[in-house]
TrEMBL record:
Gene3D superfamilies: NAD(P)-binding Rossmann-like Domain (3.40.50.720). This is L-threonine 3-dehydrogenase. Belongs to the NAD(P)-dependent epimerase/dehydratase family. It comes from the Bacteria. Residues 4-240 form the NAD-dependent epimerase/dehydratase domain. InterPro entries: Epimerase_deHydtase, NAD(P)-bd_dom_sf, NAD(P)_epim/dehydratase.
Length: 313
């Protein structure tokens, strides 16, 4: 990766990833794009272009002008928003992806896009969910993610594009909030613990989902993109996870720092239904074996860091 184009650079992942990539690869070598333009460091601190990913011509033009050799395509609607606006999700998630793959194909770029635990469905084994298993998601987001994995494989097989991807679990970060996801509770709970000392969860007690702290997620993408292609048996997309947790597990961990913290529930049937259609705990052994994936943060270490950083904020 020498000159990188990012889409969705102002989103939850992009806001941190752009700055990290600029640190590693050089500020001028990371071109951030997003449909919005703000006063944030992503926009003001290096190359930035406004881009709606459904505009394939503009994406190609930006990539050509900046002479990029890597496309990191992050722009997408998350699961709960996609369920509320399925047609819009199809147009953005699939239209944006095919434009990004076409750009990578024409300019001979390396390519990364995240898939998700949302690619799995109710027929998928719930625990130690294997890398290769039945998918059959029942959400629009999941349909987009499975189609995206297959499309990225197709561009690799038919056109030789060096496509790589991971199935992200819920990502937890103190920098930029997620928006419209099913796993967002696991971020909100920390903000509310600091602000109000209590949280009402829209995800029910005992509902387990995989999660990962943002620094581990960003390192995973870099490690995968820098991995020797000869070692990759899978490409789109690797299971990755750091922990499988339910709301009460996060609450117990927060109480070690804020003993008066309380958790109650007001379950949202839509997001609960999505969560129940996803695995409890996926198996990341293919990522470990093929490119050395590892996560530094477990629930205890992540909670201590989240609370410390949010207090400073
Ligand atoms: C969501 O909840 O939609 C995302 C995801 C797991 O892909 N965080």
């Amino acid at each position: 990766m020498k000159k990188i184009l990012l889409t969705g650079a102002l989103g939850q992942i992009g806001s941190e990833f752009t700055l990290k990539l600029r640190e590693i690869y050089g500020t001028d070598n990371v071109v951030a794009t997003d449909i919005r333009e703000t006063e944030s460091e992503v926009v003001t601190g290096g190359p930035f272009e406004k881009l709606d990913v459904t505009d394939g011509d503009k994406m190609m033009d930006i990539a050509k002008r900046h002479n990029v050799d890597t496309v990191i395509h992050l722009a997408a609607l998350l699961s709960a928003t996609a369920e509320a606006k399925p047609l819009l999700a199809w147009n953005i998630n699939m239209g944006g992806l095919v434009n990004a793959l076409e750009t990578a194909k024409e300019l001979d770029c390396k390519f990364f896009t995240p898939s998700s635990i949302g690619a799995f469905g109710p027929l998928t084994p719930k625990n130690e969910t294997p890398q290769d298993t039945i998918m059959r998601p029942t959400t629009m987001y999941g349909v987009n993610k499975v189609s995206g994995e297959l499309l990225a494989d197709y561009y690799h097989q038919k056109s030789g594009v060096d496509t790589r991807g991971v199935r992200f679990p819920g990502l937890i970060s103190y920098v930029a909030p997620p928006g419209g996801g099913t796993t967002d509770y696991a971020v909100e709970i920390y903000y509310e613990a600091i602000k109000n000392g209590k949280y009402t969860s829209y995800i029910g007690e005992g509902t387990y989902m995989d999660m990962m702290y943002m620094p581990d997620a960003l390192n995973a993408v870099i490690d995968l993109m820098e991995a020797d292609p000869a070692k990759l048996k899978h490409r789109n997309a690797f299971n990755v996870t750091a922990m499988s947790i339910a709301p009460e597990d996060v609450a117990k961990e927060i109480q070690k720092h804020i003993p008066s913290f309380t958790l109650d529930y007001n379950v949202d049937p839509v997001r609960q239904g999505i969560a129940e259609s996803w695995p409890n705990a996926i198996d990341a052994s293919a990522a470990k074996e093929e490119w050395g994936f590892k996560a530094e943060y477990d629930l205890a270490k992540m909670t201590a860091d989240m609370l410390e950083k949010l207090k400073e904020k």
